[in-house]
């Protein structure tokens, strides 16, 4: 797997190595179905389960309905919960105000730890502060690398979206791209903005943002299709999530465009598309690992007082490129729902 984009992340190697060593002890667990709100206690992992007292962890994300990326995050969290004797309570809402209310619900339930995404950090500052005041440790995952420390979170697990975007822009240069469009499926999401800004920083061609309604896939398709018809010089469509990449492929086919589709994030369907040549390449941030390490990190803190990165550095889970050169290796793990 191409790790050339990790130059900046090597400073965090000790924290990543520690997290990887912990991850080797995980036990298998079936994937959740991903709903508005539910309790998950894990299954199939009684062998090797921690003998520590039962604890409850709330995982609160900004998952939009139908976004399968979060199924992978949740599956990792469930595996860690099963190993660590943790009751996992999962809830999600793409509306930042509603997500804050879900965090407040977790505080009211007196959970032992909270793992939260910070796609729109300003809306969550107050409630995260309330959690800390209540003595509940909070870790961040996936979104919010620029804000987790100042908000007082214990740890952060994810990728540096700016670094990932910059690596993506360099990859576009390598494949000879000249004109690209960056499809943003959620306005106001700082991580998505950082991705497109990173692409613009290193890409030697021209790129513009195209905003779509990520909760309405037919609308996404019509917007991308219209853009390709309007600007026939576009040679690359950059999407920020696997489901949107597959929809962009449909738009390319429908318009007869010669544009290639490349994307951030990965799932089983997308690895198949890379194998077929429908998708040129993808950036993998390892969402399974993000969910797993977030829950396991809270368990380690509550059980042993451990925390990765010394409270100062994030644990980086990406970026890594997946293309035809290495997709066969990744595809098997994607089929299991762990990549």
Automatic annotation (TrEMBL):
Family: Belongs to the bacterial solute-binding protein 2 family.
Localization (cell): Cell envelope
Main location: other
Name under which the protein is recorded: Sugar ABC transporter substrate-binding protein
Keywords: Signal
InterPro entries from the UniProt entry: Bact_Solute-Bind_Prot2, Peripla_BP_I, SBP_2_dom
Species annotation: Streptomyces viridiviolaceus
All residue ranges annotated as the Periplasmic binding protein domain in the record: 58-299
Spans annotated as Disordered: 31-51
Signal peptide: 1-19
């Amino acid at each position: 797997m191409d790790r050339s984009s990790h130059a900046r992340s090597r400073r965090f190697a000790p924290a990543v190595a520690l997290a990887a060593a912990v991850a080797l002890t995980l036990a298998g667990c079936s994937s959740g179905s991903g709903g508005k709100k539910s309790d998950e206690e894990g299954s199939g992992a009684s062998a090797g389960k921690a003998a520590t007292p039962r604890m409850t962890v709330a995982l609160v994300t900004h998952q939009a309905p139908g976004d399968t990326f979060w199924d992978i995050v949740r599956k990792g969290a469930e595996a860690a919960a099963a190993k660590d004797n943790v009751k996992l309570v999962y809830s999600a809402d793409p509306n930042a105000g509603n997500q804050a209310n879900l965090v407040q619900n977790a505080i009211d339930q007196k959970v032992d730890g909270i793992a939260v995404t910070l796609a729109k950090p300003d809306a969550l500052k107050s409630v995260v502060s309330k959690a800390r005041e209540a003595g509940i440790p909070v870790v961040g995952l996936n979104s919010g690398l620029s804000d987790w420390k100042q908000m007082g979170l214990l740890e952060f697990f994810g990728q540096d979206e700016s670094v990932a975007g910059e690596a993506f822009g360099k990859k576009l240069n390598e494949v000879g791209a000249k004109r690209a469009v960056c499809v943003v499926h959620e306005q106001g999401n700082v991580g998505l903005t950082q991705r497109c800004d990173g692409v613009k920083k290193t890409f030697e061609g021209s790129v513009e943002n195209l905003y779509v309604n990520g909760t309405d896939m037919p609308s996404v398709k019509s917007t991308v299709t219209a853009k390709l018809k309007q600007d026939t010089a576009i040679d690359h469509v950059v999407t920020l999530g696997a489901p949107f990449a597959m929809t962009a492929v449909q738009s390319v086919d429908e318009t007869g465009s010669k544009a290639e589709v490349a994307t951030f994030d990965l799932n089983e369907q997308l690895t198949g598309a890379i194998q077929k040549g429908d998708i040129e390449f993808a950036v993998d941030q390892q969402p399974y690992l993000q969910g797993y390490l977030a829950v396991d990190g809270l368990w380690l803190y509550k059980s042993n007082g451990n925390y990765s990165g010394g409270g100062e550095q994030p644990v980086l889970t990406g970026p890594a490129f997946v293309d035809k050169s290495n997709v066969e290796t990744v595809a098997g793990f994607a089929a299991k729902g762990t990549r």
